[in-house]
Amino acid sequence: MLLYYYDMIILEIQQKVFLKNLILFWALCFAAFVQGQQSNLGSPPIRNFSKKTYSASPQNWKISQRNDGLMLFANNLGLLSFDGKTWQIRPMVNHTIMRSLKVDEGGKIFVGGQGEFGYFDQRSGTSLEYHDLTYLVPEPFRKFADVWSIQIHSGLIFFQTFRQVMIYDGKKITAFPFDESIEKMFIFENRISLQFKSAHFSVYTDNTFTPQVLLQGMKGDVVDICKLNDGRTFIATYKDGIYQYDGNTCRPIDVTASPNMSNIWISSMKVLSDGNLMIGTSNKGVLLITPQLNSLLNLRKENGLQNSTVLTTVQDMNGDLWVATESGLDFIEYKSPYRIVYPDGPFNGTGYSSAIHKGWLYLGTNNGLFYMPLSVNSGSAYFKAVDGSRDVCWNLDVINDQLLLGQNEGASVIVKDKAFPFFRGQGVWKFIPQSDKSIVFGAYEGVGQIMDSKNLKSTRMLKGFAESSRIMVRDGNDLLWMSHPYRGIFKLKVDKEGIAVNSKLYTKAEGLETELENYIILVDQKVYSSNTNGIFSYNFATDKFQHDTTLEKIIGFEKGTKLLLEDTYKNIWFRKGNKMGFLELKDSNWKKVYECNLLPSLPESLAGGFEKVFPLSANEFLFNCESGFLLFDKRKLTKGNKFPTTINKLTLIGEVDSVLMNGIESGFLKYSKKKPLVLGYDQNNLRFEVASNLFSDEPLEYLYVLDGLNEGKTGWTSEPFVTYNNLSSGKYILKVKTKIGGIEQTDSTLFYFEIVPAWYNSNLFRMSMLMIFAFGIIALFQMQNKKFETEKRELHSDIRKS
Known about the structure:
A hairpin with a 2-residue loop joins strand 14 (about 180-190) and strand 15. Strands 59, 61, 63, 64 and 65 form a 5-stranded mixed β-sheet that branches. It is built from 4 helices and 65 strands. It is mainly β and about 800 residues long.
């Protein structure tokens, strides 16, 4: 019998603190829902990179990305880069704070610091090298402070400081000094524009800056200008809100209907690939809003960021978001199909149950039951606690339009925001409708029955069966099936009098192969069970279970596979080790056809033994986890994102290792079959290191195949490197395949190289030796022939004399 002990005195104190903290948390952190968009529930997974992680300053002033996927950050200590595996910091010549960076189409990384600017390039060597441009600045203008902004326009590079702009054309630098300080340099209407402290503007035309009237009606300092997908132009200011530009003048946008948008200090604004806007602020974290300025999400320190003061933001080429705060870097998996939901706020309790009832979403945790409206027109929405539900919430079932809650203390009916107990005495696991008038329920010690299901009266425990009945289903023959964790499966039938339960136990003898870890579900009213030995279906004709090889083949059964349920949309959900997946029923004229979908790695661990899947809609599903819930959106389960693996480092192994190549090289050192990397005969001990520009913490596996070497294939490994020793001369192709979260990527990475033989093993040397040998034979033959002719002449001479 499973018992839970609660100290009621402590609970009363904790409940007051709990409710106070809960309301505060959700009022601060949970963003508004847009009507009809359930996927806005929860927050995307966030990966925090602190200064200890990347061994540099916590402050990063600009973020960019090179075409090959390399992430770049203007850090206080220099250029910080991340390839998905390795962080590297590269200081500028004077080791000053790097304030700005910009990457051109060719991969040059232009950077600006205090009294210094230049660029990093990789095209001329095997690693990033810094090229200082400060020496090109005319002598009278070389004393300048921070380079705050860099823009690239019409083949020119613009570097902006407080008092001047310097333009680099690839050969020389032209300086433009100003009498007043420059607040912002930006591109507006395809022209480089400057805003001065006096609120005046200047535009670069005809190789010079000329004053112009811009953005009439706007107040404050320009932060960012965004062109929306519908053609509108939004202008973000630091403390004066957002303006819309109509082609002539600016008008302020009314944000009073969006509480999260009031009194914000904007540090950045970006249009995302889906048309939404990302706004970084100095006082309210990151805001995600629609083009209509409806709030989607507000991320702060309280719900995932390291700090609510945001310095800059960017969306990477995979569609995910990077946020630089005062405390480090945060990677937001915006394109992830998952959202993390904590209905009990900062307490992050274990999720157990879910239900929708009369327009309200209910989520049950070990801290009680919480609810919120499914759709909200405007304003903030957050979960509230259901009165009287402060107990572990095992299950929620909607039967006869009533929401029933099974808990450790018994059973209750939920009426909007209140729980009304109707059964006490022992814990209740779940409810199953038995008929129009009665309901059966699985309890800690057997099976109970509610005779009057409408009024929830005449509740009693049935005799004859006392096993804990947590995992239980009812088939089309009015039979109950209950799986026991170590005894097998019970078939239960309530007698005609409704007083007792008759049971039959199914074990190895009945085809299950093991009594351990059976989990029973219904698929199209057919009884299935999964255990460590396989998937089994019940055969009514033989009254036994038998292997279902069809499902096993579709799923790819392996030890640890567990069927979870068939949902209302006919998807069959399963757990496979640490992975989740589902079989999706496809249209077919004459038979059922299932497509197997394996989900990406889960950012939260499922509640072990209590795994459940609850459909919010045909596309959105809730998983209960050890901490809260995961919302999965099937529409975002795309295979379009590619995370290329690159050979990012090659080391020659010897008494002293030497690095032959370092950094992501795919766009710079393109080795091919016709133009391989050529190595000497004594450079035959090599270590290749790989990286993938996957920035989430999904597990990566690699398979290395070296064509040209017998037994050159490894098994799948998590090691991001492979070593080859004593390679003989010849041509080689290193092929690297990648698995991300257990899913194999379609493309392989190829790296061509050749090891030339030693001079004494070369074809030229062999040919030379062969020619020398041949010439030697010919010379020897000629010498012998000459000697023979000489002896012949001498013999003839002796004969004549005689």
